[in-house]
Specification:
Layout (H helix, E strand, L loop, with lengths): L1 H16 L6 E8 L10 E6 L5 E5 L5 E5 L4 E8 L6 E7 L4 E8 L18 E4 L2 E4 L12 H5 L2 H8 L1
Length: about 160
């Protein structure tokens, strides 16, 4: 009987000595302008001492929950495409932390000038019919269909 008690104490004692630290970080991610939840926002935590990365994504309501395995200091980044990235530092001491409602402001990306150029397709096939778009061929304004069919552009098209 004493041996059974001793075995039970030896088996269960480590469970009581280990400090069960939860380290759960949660919060909500929203658009700061429309106040709508950002589904799929990235939440990344990096440990300061070895840069181990832990991450999660927000759900359809903008909610996220991330369980971190140890206490200590973390750098965190909350990001979403088209929005500014929120950066911060958090020290976990074995308790749950709710970051609350996080508002990400939209951002714009400026690029150089863009020129859009369109080109008319000279030929379009519709079933058993072939359509030739006359605007795609260089001819004089008073040209006839025969002029189009004998033009150099039309002949090049027929060869290819």
């Amino acid at each position: 009987m004493n041996n059974l008690k001793l075995i039970t104490i030896i088996v269960l004692l480590p469970l009581f000595l280990i400090n069960p630290q939860s380290n759960i970080v949660s919060g909500l991610v929203f658009d700061s302008v429309s106040a709508k939840p950002l589904t799929g926002a990235n939440i990344v935590f990096n440990t300061l001492y070895d840069s181990t990365t832990y991450g999660a994504a927000s759900d359809k309501d903008g909610r996220f929950t991330l369980r971190l395995p140890q206490t200590g200091k973390y750098l965190y980044y909350i990001s979403f495409i088209g929005y500014e990235t929120l950066k911060g530092e958090l020290t976990l001491k074995g308790e749950n932390v709710n970051l609350g409602k996080i508002l990400l402001p939209p951002t714009t990306i400026e690029t150089g000038e863009v020129e859009v150029v369109g080109k008319i397709l000279p030929v379009q096939f519709k079933g058993d019919t072939t359509e030739y778009h006359t605007d795609a061929f260089k001819t004089t304004p008073d040209a006839t269909a025969l002029d189009l069919l004998t033009s150099a552009t039309f002949k090049k098209l027929k060869k290819s």
